[in-house]
Predict the structure.
Amino acid sequence: MKHLLFLTRYLKFRLNAKTRYRIHSQFIFDFINNILKDKEEYNDYGTLWKFRNQLASSNDPVETVDFGVGAGKKAYKTKILTLGKIVRSRSHSESRLKLLYRITKYYKFQSILEFGTAAGISAAYIKSGNPQSKMVTMEGCANLASHANEFFFKLGLEKIEIAVGNFDVVLDDALKKFNSLDFVFFDGNHRKEPTLRYFEKCVQLSNENSIFVFDDIHWSTDMESTWEAIKKDARVSVTIDLFWFGLVFFRKGIEKQDFVISYYK
């Protein structure tokens, strides 16, 4: 039943989606051409994917702690999994990781916050887009955070701080490290009330050029409701629904619009 509901959401997305040739907003048209349709094979891609695959083949056991939707009705849930299984199940597809890279590379974001480090794959792609940026990534599981730190070291990535603990506990201190947030990737709790609460705190530090990216906006009815609430927020000027990701912009002087865009790469 769950898979059927997900398929229904995807079909609905396809029916509503537009191509770049049906977009009449210059800002969004430029975003599509310069980022979504950027086909250049950057040198970082090969290096990052090679290291990702090495982690994906690891049989090292990791005791994980889940404070999000995976915990069900409990405050948290622990389980032992191999590092490879965690990477294969929790990291994003190569195309979506490349998209995160291109966004930070194009806009040269200086201040970056991520919810949900896991093994550090998405953080590595985001950070590599602009190695000079300051980045804080939050992870509830100390064991996973340790593996992520090793991953960052092997890639030569610096100025990435991992805040370990429940987002409810570590978020306030993480936000104190920034005067402004250029880019936020919400890839953690996947429940409505916490996600909206985190959004509210982060939006206080947003600026006109900030971009917030939400993962799995159609993953559940709860997440779809979350996405609808964010779209209606008066501080949000433009949103883009790519099905897997939801992008939020705070640009001034443009008409408030919500776009559903077909994206295949």
Observations:
- The domain at 2-57+92-260 is CATH 3.40.50.150 (Rossmann fold).
- The beta strands are 61-66, 77-82, 111-115, 134-139, 160-164, 181-186, 206-215, 238-241, 245-249, 257-260.
